[in-house]
Specification:
By secondary structure, this protein is an alpha+beta fold. It has 3 helices and 3 strands. Helices cover 38% and strands 26% of the residues. A hairpin with a 4-residue loop joins strand 1 and strand 2. The longest helix is centred in the first third of the chain and has 17 residues. Keywords: Plasmid, Signal. This is DUF4177 domain-containing protein.
Length: 97
Amino acid sequence: MKHLLLKPALIAALLALATPVMAADCYADYKAKQDSPLRLHYGVIQLSGACQKGAAKAEIGNRIAPQGWTLLNVISVFGPEGLQQRKPNAGSYYLRF
């Protein structure tokens, strides 16, 4: 009888693990470009969607496109502990978008 009660709890735990983690304090660093003339930038952005590299690509691409930028790649996805070390390199593109 006990095993009948454990199955729903196990299923619920597995579903919780399979669900993408939503961004509470999730950030990504990325590289982007503009054409004519060619301009490149490295930036840091706070994510509002899933805290995963694949989801970050779509979110960042959509957020920087209205300003004429094209996403080249997402370097990494990280928590607040990685912000300060990336701030000097991002310059004016630190949390800009």
